[in-house]
Amino acid sequence: MAFLSTAHLLAFIFGLLGNIVSFLVFLAPVPTFHKIYKKKSSEGYQSIPYVIALFSAALLLYYAFLKTNAYMIITINGIGCVIEVIYLSLFVIYAPKKSKAFTAKMILLCNVALGLIVLFSLFLVKGTKRIMVIGWACAIINLAVFAAPLSIMRQVIRTNSVEFMPFTLSLFLTLCATMWFFYGFFVKDFYIAVPNVMGFLFGITQMILYYVYKDGEKKDVELDVKQHEGKNDVEMNMK
């Protein structure tokens, strides 16, 4: 009984911390979208992470309602859905036509997928199996959320620049994964705990990449200057 009480207390603590850190994660892109709003352009930013994050939050919201008493999951994902809708609205407004069309297709696809999952769980699955099916769906989508920045990580490696991968976002994603892992562990919800192990690993990888490439642009600039100076020296010698 003492362990049970301790487990419930720790679950509450990590759930509360998870809500706080997750809220900060949802707010982390605010500077990005402020820049998009000021420049009236989505620049090189991509909408995929925000579309998947919205889909994940909506599915977790449904899972929490099915599970009952999962208030920690309900609160943050309800807030998350609202925030992601705002982000995507701004992105669509200021994105070029090709990006707008792609984002609209992604949103439509996610809405259809969510509708099919809900209908399948309501009419073809009953009892505890319903929670199991939606739990597995949430686990898979959570992995997709954590893997979504892979495209940005590839861009960092290709361009030798971390301009589109803020360190604060990577840090908060890592902290978020840690909090929700322990919450899932203490409430014995492994559909929540297991994906966050991968989330932690992806977050650490992003932070390592940031430190490897954070001076990439500076090095490129210095290289261009040296090449330019070398060219001038050659021209002067030829004269």
TrEMBL record:
Give a short account of what the protein does: Mediates both low-affinity uptake and efflux of sugar across the membrane.
- The protein, known as: Bidirectional sugar transporter SWEET
Keywords noted in UniProt = Cell membrane, Membrane, Repeat, Sugar transport, Transmembrane, Transmembrane helix, Transport
Q: Which Pfam families did the record assign?
A: MtN3_slv (PF03083)
Q: Tell me what organism the protein belongs to.
A: Escallonia rubra
Signal peptide stretch = none
Matching Gene3D superfamilies: 1.20.1280.290
Fetch the InterPro entries from UniProt: SWEET, SWEET_rpt
Q: Which residues cross the membrane?
A: 6-27, 48-65, 71-94, 106-125, 131-152, 164-186, 192-213
Q: Taxonomically, which superkingdom?
A: Eukaryota
According to the UniProt record, one GO cellular component term is: plasma membrane
Q: Name one GO molecular function term.
A: sugar transmembrane transporter activity
- Report the locations given in the UniProt record: Cell membrane
Give the way it sits in the membrane. Answer: Multi-pass membrane protein
Family to which the UniProt record says this protein belongs: Belongs to the SWEET sugar transporter family.
Q: State where it is primarily located.
A: membrane
